[in-house]
Amino acid sequence: EIVLTQSPATLSVSPGDRATLSCRASQSIRSDLAWYQQIPGQPPRLLIYGASTRATGIPARFSGSGSGTEFTLTISSLQSEDCAVYYCQQYYNWPPYTFGQGTKVDIK
Amino acid sequence: QVQLVQSGADMRKPGASVKVSCKTSGYTFTDRYIHWVRQAPGQGLQWMGWINPNSGDTRSAQNFEGRVTMTRDTAINTAYLELTRLKSDDTAVYYCVVARFSFDFWGQGTLVTVSS
């Protein structure tokens, strides 16, 4: 099973500042990685797939990068509506599909 | 637009079974796999399995083998998840998800509470 480790667990960022979230895989997953945003009380929403491709309707301030075992989600200018938990997920080697444990982003 | 509408919250006693439905619209039902993912209160996301709506083939996570059954009704574009021999730690929100590779579209979730 591929283990995804996200860091940090919590990230406090001032409005307008950059937020950088990390996801590390226990073995290479090429670029078969997605990022999801989950606002409390809502289902997750796909942000990024293929490590770097924004899903339909996702604002340009969200970007993804990386391949192999190291991945990054960047929010270039944090807005209040971006407060959420962010999960990475691999779909390279399954079963099972696995998720990271999440990074909570809040406003400083 | 793709929509997934799940059945309402349910409460069951330990040892019982629960069946959650997921009615889809806005795309061709047989074109995309449907996955089931659950989330215990305050916890992360756990993949449970998938069904190929075209063939009916299924694959479940090892943790749930023998307890989970995934089915579909192509006449009404609806997928189902049944979980048996419920335990208190099965209390969670259960999501259906339409996927190609990444998990593209999510249902609103169904809270299943297992309590005596």
Task: Give an overview in words.
Chain A has about 110 residues and is mainly beta. Chain A is built from no helices and eleven strands. The mean pLDDT of chain A is about 95. Chain B has about 120 residues and is mostly beta strands. Chain B has strands spanning about 5, 10, 20-25, 35-40, 45-50, 60, 70-75, 80-85, 90-100, 105, 110-115. In chain B, strands 2, 4, 5, 6, 9, 10 and 11 form a seven-stranded mixed β-sheet that branches. A four-stranded antiparallel β-sheet of chain B has the order 1-3-8-7, with no helix packed on it. In chain B, strand 7 (about 70-75) and strand 8 (about 80-85) form a beta hairpin. Chain B is globular, with a radius of gyration of 13 Å. Chains A and B meet through strand 5 and strand 10 of A and strand 5 and strand 10 of B.
Q: What portion of residues of chain B belong to β-strands?
A: over 45%
Contiguous low-pLDDT stretches of chain A (5 residues minimum) are none
| Termini separation of chain A | 36 Å
Low-confidence stretches of chain B: none
SSE string of chain B = EEEEEEEEEEE
Total number of β-strand segments of chain B? Answer: 11
Quick structural summary:
The complex is a heterodimer of chains A (108) and B (116). Chain A is an all-beta fold.
Keyword list:
heterodimer, A: 108 residues, mainly beta, 7-stranded mixed beta sheet, 4-stranded antiparallel beta sheet, B: 116 residues
Write the layout of secondary structure elements.
The complex is a heterodimer of chains A (108) and B (116).
Chain A lengths: L3 E4 L2 E4 L5 E7 L7 E6 L6 E5 L3 E2 L7 E6 L2 E6 L8 E7 L7 E2 L3 E5 L1
Parallel strand pairs in A: 2-11
Antiparallel strand pairs in A: 1-3, 3-8, 4-5, 4-9, 5-6, 7-8, 9-10, 9-11
Chain B lengths: L2 E4 L3 E3 L5 E8 L7 E7 L6 E6 L6 E3 L7 E6 L4 E6 L8 E8 L3 E4 L3 E5 L2
Parallel strand pairs in B: 2-11
Antiparallel strand pairs in B: 1-3, 3-8, 4-5, 4-9, 5-6, 7-8, 9-10, 9-11
